[in-house]
């Protein structure tokens, strides 16, 4: 019987007795694991340099070599792995010593298959719960507010059907679309419907990384690899082992990081910065971008070969203006969510507010709508939210904000900022295009609900 119905886990067996290694291997493989057995400490450390493991079964004595002395070296190389000690010389003192050294459990020899499976299952379930709690804490406050999959729009329904088929595969997915269309939420939706739904979901916001740290963040580094690398560090690829790695705004990756990512996509191998040892990882990649990568390729800012590797399954999220049937249901959903969150039951939209929502172009897409509703729920003194509470002062049928149209300068500025930001590679670049500093741009984004 498989452990927790999940095959995306691995274990390293370190025991100098070939018979014990074989028994453990057969037991754990029957439970669904990917297993490697080695007979000495040096071989164990070499294996840990090449691949990540969820579990390590470590004999207390490897001939004349002490497993307790090897244990800290294992944890230095892979701090997140769980070490279970096995020994024929079980005493209370040795068990306490093992736990103090960092082991999570202790199995005496001779052991039964059920003992081994139970020990592995306890550890794996605890790790999954820790990862799930961390993920839910990260998503707390946005999960319900970003639920936009109930749709009356035929095009979006067709999109979700295609995305569902993509989720069932293990191929690379490239999510494309304007800023604010919900690409990060879509990435989680795909993960949740994939065979890796129980695995980790590790997100990387590429624009937030400096050029110098991109490769290190993705693939890890050894101590001394560069100035400031005071200790070994695992990368996001290793953190996502057995699960899904999401690269948000992949078009912002440096050329060095692009080269390393291409190699990883080609053969699932990579190297940490500062070391020559080749590592292997079992990770599914989902990438997202709001930039026209074809133009980035022509400009020499994005590798053509990487573009083709990412563009295997390309899904284009529609803009909110292309989903008019969903505008008011989404607004109502956000309003219910924030009414509950702010402790203001009974908040409602006036007919004029609904007209304004239906007629607005929403260049900031779902993010803009969500922010407008949240701001109104916080600041409006009334239970009835009107167009002014939402920052929408034009009535239905009023002209769209464009140069020469009969709208305020403020409306023109807001529309212009909302259109420039998705086209610029960074917010700093957008500020330079607009002729203002980054602080002013951030203030205007907050004012206009474009954050």
From TrEMBL:
<dbReference type="Pfam" id="PF02954">
    <property type="entry name" value="HTH_8"/>
</dbReference>
<dbReference type="Pfam" id="PF00158">
    <property type="entry name" value="Sigma54_activat"/>
</dbReference>
<feature type="domain" description="Response regulatory">
    <location>
        <begin position="10"/>
        <end position="124"/>
    </location>
</feature>
<dbReference type="InterPro" id="IPR058031">
    <property type="entry name" value="AAA_lid_NorR"/>
</dbReference>
<keyword id="KW-0597">Phosphoprotein</keyword>
<feature type="domain" description="Sigma-54 factor interaction">
    <location>
        <begin position="149"/>
        <end position="378"/>
    </location>
</feature>
<dbReference type="Pfam" id="PF25601">
    <property type="entry name" value="AAA_lid_14"/>
</dbReference>
<feature type="modified residue" description="4-aspartylphosphate">
    <location>
        <position position="59"/>
    </location>
</feature>
<keyword id="KW-0238">DNA-binding</keyword>
<keyword id="KW-0547">Nucleotide-binding</keyword>
<keyword id="KW-0805">Transcription regulation</keyword>
<dbReference type="InterPro" id="IPR025662">
    <property type="entry name" value="Sigma_54_int_dom_ATP-bd_1"/>
</dbReference>
<dbReference type="GO" id="GO:0000160">
    <property type="term" value="P:phosphorelay signal transduction system"/>
</dbReference>
<dbReference type="GO" id="GO:0043565">
    <property type="term" value="F:sequence-specific DNA binding"/>
</dbReference>
<keyword id="KW-0067">ATP-binding</keyword>
<protein>
    <submittedName>
        <fullName>Response regulator of zinc sigma-54-dependent two-component system</fullName>
    </submittedName>
</protein>
<dbReference type="InterPro" id="IPR001789">
    <property type="entry name" value="Sig_transdc_resp-reg_receiver"/>
</dbReference>
<dbReference type="InterPro" id="IPR011006">
    <property type="entry name" value="CheY-like_superfamily"/>
</dbReference>
<dbReference type="InterPro" id="IPR025943">
    <property type="entry name" value="Sigma_54_int_dom_ATP-bd_2"/>
</dbReference>
<keyword id="KW-0804">Transcription</keyword>
<dbReference type="InterPro" id="IPR025944">
    <property type="entry name" value="Sigma_54_int_dom_CS"/>
</dbReference>
<dbReference type="GO" id="GO:0005524">
    <property type="term" value="F:ATP binding"/>
</dbReference>
<dbReference type="InterPro" id="IPR002197">
    <property type="entry name" value="HTH_Fis"/>
</dbReference>
<dbReference type="Pfam" id="PF00072">
    <property type="entry name" value="Response_reg"/>
</dbReference>
<dbReference type="GO" id="GO:0006355">
    <property type="term" value="P:regulation of DNA-templated transcription"/>
</dbReference>
<dbReference type="InterPro" id="IPR002078">
    <property type="entry name" value="Sigma_54_int"/>
</dbReference>
<dbReference type="InterPro" id="IPR003593">
    <property type="entry name" value="AAA+_ATPase"/>
</dbReference>
<feature type="coiled-coil region">
    <location>
        <begin position="119"/>
        <end position="146"/>
    </location>
</feature>
<dbReference type="InterPro" id="IPR009057">
    <property type="entry name" value="Homeodomain-like_sf"/>
</dbReference>
<dbReference type="InterPro" id="IPR027417">
    <property type="entry name" value="P-loop_NTPase"/>
</dbReference>
<keyword id="KW-0175">Coiled coil</keyword>
